[in-house]
Write a structure and sequence with these properties.
alpha+beta, lipopolysaccharide transport protein A fold, three-stranded mixed β-sheet, 19% helix, elongated, disordered N terminus
Length: 932
């Protein structure tokens, strides 16, 4: 038996030795780098991100049990670019091996080098880490309580030694695409001394930051000592010495220093936290704070403290953070401020006490107090007041760009008292009074007073303003408001009535300049009435009625999502003369001749981003509107816009016995705006339209017009690009028309009679030209409008045309017309003449500003010479040129001919004689000057 037992013991010892040897050999030859693929796949499976370890993984066992790794990369979330979310050059941690067996924990310095962390939030508010932070839905504090381990004993902490923390070359980047803010924290260094139980710990932190909003760079250095006592559970970080250097264009002088000193203490035993003797000094501003919080880890923490802020230049502080008011307030001579606040609050219980609130800044004084207990319950009580006054506000208003208002506003005041008991609260009085005085204000000084006594029941979540009034300087506004569920998801409704007042007079009294309008009597009658309702993210105006002089607008309007407005409306207008509210026409103002340079400079940019963000669904109908002196009836406009897709439909109106109908599509989803226009103008009577538009008793053109624009397309960021890309087709027709101011048939007849009779006479171009039809098809290609089929049919002649009607890019014209005269006979007294049978070519050239349409005298002369022959023209030419004959019939221009001929005689001796055809050309040119 002993032998058997001995053998068993020997075998067991041998087995133990073998196992130890196997374990030792395994640990010695184990290489974690051979398992990188497994580690990477598990991390990628857990995170859904790409993961890589490009450096070596090193394990050590003796005398230190440690781990070192490097080249770690974690990819970014989908939609946040290719830049990795995390990159780490090196991390190392190790602990003494042998002391572990005696429950002693001696850790070496924790080292981390080259951490680069890229955090971002997209325009929808999603972050690139929220998928990693997704949990099981339990609140964080509940999880913490459920998973909190037992507190380590003094023995275990006493056996813990940490060699320190050494963090270097850390960089953090923050990109908020919603607010377009970018922040970079770089060159982070964090170092501590050895962490031994009971011994103070010295901490040092340094880093650099830069941001674009505000545009600031900082250099931070923080040092302090952490003291802790496990027995009393008191932890203190004191003294704190923080130095911050601020650099940026918005910083006065380019840079400044911020110094903060103070101390922090946390007492886990009595559950308190204290900020003690905190001071901050920057830009001649001194801040002091003493704050104590008790029951910190409970659901109802209590906070009390004192805050003081004093400084000589508030504008400087605002400018650092690029708050626009900072630059404006810099114009003030006195920019000092003094703010003192003493408080004691337990928000969870609804207890708020402000025993001191004093503000002195920018000419404004405010004092207040508040004593509130359990205001969120039915037993709540409240008593408070706030009084504020501002005298001599002129400099402040001038600094804020309201100097004209500052000249008449003498002072403003606010007076409010708050009382409440058992959940019923009342603000009464709630009064804002402003005093105005000036030569334009009768019986000045005059007060404008706003009163709005308010009742609230927080237990029922109800708020009421039964009677809000604003009176003074001709204003009489009344309103009421009822709100429900104000503590959670407020919903409200109410009414507003603004009695008729003279807006033009009020603006003058307040020293405000209105836009220059054609009608100086406009804006003398303005009134408003509406019912409203909504919640925190919705406003609806129902039964809206606005009076503007002789115009009444009625309808409904709603606005949802104030941060990204979604607007709907349905509005009806009875009658409006829009010309009254437009700038007056400037007589005699000349437009500069268009050149590529001036056209480019004048090209106004389209607000593509604004159009892309537009969310509108609305309809507007107007019974009658006058625009550019033209009258339209039954105007209907509809708009649908969302995500850059915009459609204007319908666009309809009745005008001058005809109708207008159009659809306009716009695409603002890209960088440039795309537009498509289709429209028709049917059976419009041009005579009254042009008489109204031109403000003349007689229009230059009469007839029934039909005009269509078919698939007119353009793309561009501005008007210049739109002109260059404009393409499509158009068609115009005018039937039963009259061209006033010239009788073309009679003019042509006079010319031929003059030739036939051989008597040179003055041409009478007065009268009208009736025509049966005027039509043309227009081709538009890249801003160039051409036509090949213009035709005008009239009694005795026909006009055709082709060429470039307009080049919108350089605003030029190059168009050719031809008038074909029919063969006929006409009588002058007892004489009859054969006329017609020839064509009159007309060339149109020049710019939009100075177009020139002149008949081609050379071609006319050739046609007449061919038709009439040399014999018929001989007598006329002799009389016109003064070469013979005894006719006494002359024109005023001929009365000076003899003197001119005598002076010119010497030259005629050497000049080459002109042919009859050339002489006829000169004659035709002379004749045509009378009416072209």
């Amino acid at each position: 038996m002993k032998k058997i037992l001995k053998r068993v013991i020997i075998v067991t010892l041998i087995l133990i030795v073998v196992l130890v040897l196997i374990a030792g050999i395994t640990l010695a030859v184990f290489d974690p780098n051979e398992h990188k693929d497994f580690i990477v796949s598990r991390v990628e499976q857990a995170t859904g991100r790409s993961f890589a370890i490009t450096g070596d993984i090193k394990l050590s066992y003796y005398p230190w049990l440690g781990l070192e790794a490097g080249g770690i990369t974690l990819g970014n979330a989908k939609g946040f670019g290719k830049e990795p979310m995390l990159q780490l050059d090196k991390v190392a941690v190790r602990i003494k091996t042998l002391p572990l067996f005696s429950e002693q924990y001696i850790l070496d310095t924790f080292r981390l080098t080259g951490l680069r962390l890229n955090l971002a939030k997209n325009k929808d508010g999603n972050t690139n880490w929220q998928d990693l932070a997704a949990g099981d839905g339990k609140p964080a504090d509940k999880l913490a309580r459920e998973e909190q381990p037992d507190k380590p004993g003094v023995k275990s902490l006493g056996a813990l030694v940490l060699g320190g923390v050494d963090v270097r070359d850390v960089e953090l980047n923050w990109d908020d695409q919603a607010s377009r803010q970018k922040v970079r924290i770089s060159n982070v260094k964090f170092k501590t001394g050895e962490l031994t139980y009971g011994a103070p710990i010295d901490l040092d932190l340094s880093l650099n930051t830069s941001s674009n909003r505000p545009a600031l760079k900082t250099t931070l250095n923080l040092s302090g000592t952490l003291n802790y006592n496990q027995d009393t559970e008191i932890y203190a970080f004191e003294p704190i010495d923080l130095k911050l250097k601020l650099t940026g264009d918005s910083v006065p002088g380019g840079s400044t220093d911020l110094v903060m000193k103070g101390g922090l203490e946390a007492n886990l035993d009595d559950d308190t936290a204290t900020i003690r003797g905190l001071t901050v000094d920057v830009l001649n501003t001194h801040l002091e704070a003493d704050i104590k919080a008790s029951e910190v880890q409970s659901d109802e923490p209590q906070t009390e403290g004192r805050l003081v802020a004093k400084g000589s230049d508030l504008a400087q502080l605002l400018s650092i953070f690029e708050i626009p008011a900072g630059k404006d307030l810099a114009r003030l001579k006195d920019r000092s401020f003094d703010i003192q606040l003493g408080f004691n609050a337990n928000p969870a219980k609804g207890d708020i006490k402000v025993d001191q609130l004093n503000v002195r800044a920018l000419g404004i004084k405010a004092d207040g107090s508040l004593d509130a207990l359990a205001i969120t319950s039915s037993k709540g009580k409240m008593d408070g007041q706030l009084n504020a006054t501002g005298k001599d506000l002129g400099p402040l208003l001038a600094a804020l760009g309201q100097g004209d208002l500052g000249e008449v506003l003498q002072q403003a005041s606010l007076n409010a008292k708050l009382k409440g008991d058992k959940g019923e609260f009342q603000i009464s009085p709630l009064q804002v009074k402003t005093t105005f005085a000036g030569p334009r204000i009768p019986n000045s000084p005059v007060d404008i007073t706003l009163t709005a006594d308010t009742r609230a029941n927080l237990d029922k979540g109800r708020l009421e303003i039964p009677n809000l009034n604003l009176k003074g300087l001709g204003l009489d506004l009344s309103a009421k408001l009822n709100a429900e569920n104000i503590m959670e998801d407020p919903a409200y409704e109410g009414q507003i009535q603004l009695a008729e007042f003279n807006l033009r007079k009020l603006a003058g009294q307040l020293n405000q300049i209105l836009p220059v309008m054609a009608d100086k009597q406009a804006l003398k009658k303005v009134a408003l009435g509406t019912e409203f309702s909504g919640h925190l993210n919705l406003l609806e105006l129902d039964k809206l009625q606005v009076t503007l002089d002789d115009t009444t607008l009625k309808g409904n309007v709603s606005v949802a999502d104030f941060a990204d407005p979604d607007i709907e409306f349905d509005l009806k207008v009875d009658s409006i003369n829009a010309d009254r509210y437009l700038p007056p026409k400037q007589e005699g103002k000349k437009t500069a001749i268009a050149t590529p340079e001036t056209t480019s400079a004048a090209a106004s940019e389209f607000p593509v981003e604004t159009l892309r963000a537009l969310k509108v669904k609305g309809d507007l109908s107007v019974e009658q509107i006058i625009v550019s002196n033209a009258t339209l009836q039954n105007l209907k406009l509809g708009i649908r816009a969302r995500d850059g897709d915009i459609r204007l439909e319908p666009i309809k109106a009745d005008l001058y016995e005809g109708k207008y109908d159009a659809v306009i599509d716009m695409d603002a989803r890209g960088e440039a705006l795309k537009m498509v226009v289709n429209s028709r103008l049917d059976m419009v009577n041009l005579d009254p339209l042009l008489r109204d538009y031109m403000q003349q008793e007689e229009s230059p053109l009469a007839g029934i017009a039909n005009i269509s624009l078919n698939d007119i397309r353009a793309t561009g960021k501005n008007t210049g690009q739109v002109k260059r890309t404009l393409t499509g087709k158009a068609r115009m027709e005018v039937n039963k028309g009259i061209l006033r101011g010239i009788d073309i048939a009679n003019v042509l007849e006079q010319i031929e009679v003059m030739l036939e009779s051989k008597r040179y006479t003055q041409i009478d171009s007065s009268g009208n030209t009736p025509f049966e039809e005027l039509s043309a098809t227009l081709d538009i290609n890249k801003g160039v409008i051409t036509n090949k089929d213009l035709i005008m049919l009239a009694k005795g002649f026909k006009v055709t045309g082709e060429g470039m009607l307009a080049n919108l890019n350089d605003e030029t014209i190059k168009y050719n017309l031809k008038t074909r005269v029919d063969d006929s006979r006409t009588a002058r007294g007892e004489e009859t003449f054969n006329i017609g049978g020839y064509g009159v070519p007309i060339q149109c050239r020049g710019s939009f500003e100075k177009p020139k349409c002149l008949p081609d005298a050379d071609e006319i002369a050739k046609a007449l010479f061919k038709k009439s022959g040399e014999d018929k023209l001989k007598g006329l030419l002799e009389k016109k040129l003064g070469l013979g004959g005894d006719s006494t019939e002359t024109t005023p221009a001929d009365s000076t001919a003899p003197a001119q001929q005598q002076e010119a005689a010497p030259k005629q001796e050497t000049a080459e004689p002109k042919s009859k055809e050339e002489q006829l050309k000169d004659t035709v040119e002379d004749v045509l000057k009378g009416f072209f």
